[in-house]
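User: Could you go from structure to sequence for me? I need the amino acid at each position, not a summary. Structure tokens:
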């Protein structure tokens, strides 16, 4: 086996991510599967053990994504009701609720700048309004798949949401609690 510079860099990066960032920065959780009771139980255990995280939460604007990617069986109404209750529980237990929105997997999938702006504007505005309507005040945002372009950055600023950098935080998904109930 030869020397692989990318492999070596990955080892160093993982070491940094897991040892340094994990210990010094708040845990970021991309929150997508809280509607599932198995995930929710693990998350409650985590919070009840006195730990905390910042929860970047999906809204029903991404219901189709949840259905296809995570196999959600709930109707849109049931899904919405469940996540509102659970996000409120987290907030009431001292957890920070922030925003997570999935747009398109690659910005290159927008055919024009106008299409990119219109598509993202509609989704982000809807998600922000939904969060506010249900009493969640946010100041931070993570886009799904870290997919960003000029328009998504513009829109984050327009809504006064600070975009989070993937390299500055240790992040997991809420469903990762099924694999590891104690991520920190
Ligand atoms: Zn996501």
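Assistant: Here is the amino acid at each position, in order:
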């Amino acid at each position: 086996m030869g020397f692989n510079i990318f492999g070596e860099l990955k080892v160093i990066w993982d070491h940094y991510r897991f040892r340094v960032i994990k210990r010094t920065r708040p845990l970021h959780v991309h929150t997508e599967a809280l509607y599932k009771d198995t995930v929710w139980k693990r998350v409650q255990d985590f919070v009840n053990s006195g730990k905390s995280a910042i929860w970047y939460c999906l809204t029903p604007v991404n219901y189709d994504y949840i259905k296809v990617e995570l196999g959600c069986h709930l109707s849109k109404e049931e899904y919405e009701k469940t996540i509102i209750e659970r996000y409120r529980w987290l907030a009431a237990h001292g957890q920070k609720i922030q925003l997570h929105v999935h747009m398109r997997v690659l910005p290159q999938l927008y055919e024009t700048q106008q299409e990119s702006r219109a598509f993202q504007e509609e989704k982000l505005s809807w998600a922000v309004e939904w969060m506010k309507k249900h009493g969640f005040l946010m100041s931070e945002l993570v886009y799904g798949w870290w997919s960003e372009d000029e328009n998504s950055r513009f829109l984050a600023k327009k809504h006064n949401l600070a975009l989070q950098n993937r390299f500055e935080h240790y992040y997991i998904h809420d469903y990762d609690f099924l694999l590891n109930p104690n991520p920190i």
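One structural detail worth keeping in mind: The chain has one domain: 26-178.
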